Amino acid sequence: MYKSALAFCLLAGPALATGLEIQVAGEANGTITLDLFEDVAPEHAARLTDLAGRGAYDDVVFHRVIDGFMAQTGDVQYGKIGQDMRRAGMGGSDLPDLKAEFSDRLFTRGTVGMARSASPDSANSQFFIMFAPAPHLNGQYTVVGQVTDGMDVVDAIKRGEGRNGAVLGQPDRIVKVTLTE
């Protein structure tokens, strides 16, 4: 009996985390805690969990930060600190893009959404955290989570002064992401 239960647990794989703790350094210093919405966007929540569990987000910068709108990060291909930041925001992971998981969840302060290109089915690894409500995003982007603690850290993230919110100079970065239950 115990062997079959163990085999089932091993075949089922690791439990999906219900959230992330993101340690941030730069102008903003501290921890941002997110709840992931596995019931609303299961594939996107699983992607964030997978990449975070592999350490893919560690040392990735907040490359696009628009005051009064959002802070974007998660380019695990070109957004690592120490790389040429001119390409930050143009990459993703080595995993395939995800189909949109649009919902009736609204983009409000602290909402976590998945970044994408013009194609709705192009989200991969990048995500953004809202500084303020953005009703024009409702139903157009996948809502994957919500900040539950650390909005003061989000509010302190270095703003972009470049074109389209690009952060010039030394952007703030994710130091480490830890999975939470």
TrEMBL record:
> What is catalyzed by this enzyme?
[protein]-peptidylproline (omega=180) = [protein]-peptidylproline (omega=0)
N-terminal signal peptide: 1-17
Question: Which GO molecular function, any one, fits this protein according to its record?
Answer: peptidyl-prolyl cis-trans isomerase activity
Q: What is its EC number?
A: 5.2.1.8
What Pfam families does UniProt report for this protein, alphabetically? Pro_isomerase
Superkingdom in the source lineage: Bacteria
InterPro entries reported in the protein's UniProt record: Cyclophilin-like_dom_sf, Cyclophilin-type_PPIase, Cyclophilin-type_PPIase_CS, Cyclophilin-type_PPIase_dom, Cyclophilin_A-like
| Record keywords | Isomerase, Rotamase, Signal
Q: Which stretches make up the PPIase cyclophilin-type domain?
A: 19-181
GO BP annotations of the record are: protein folding
The UniProt family comment states: Belongs to the cyclophilin-type PPIase family.
Outline what the protein does: PPIases accelerate the folding of proteins. It catalyzes the cis-trans isomerization of proline imidic peptide bonds in oligopeptides.
Q: What is this protein called?
A: Peptidyl-prolyl cis-trans isomerase
Q: Which organism is it from?
A: Rhodovulum imhoffii
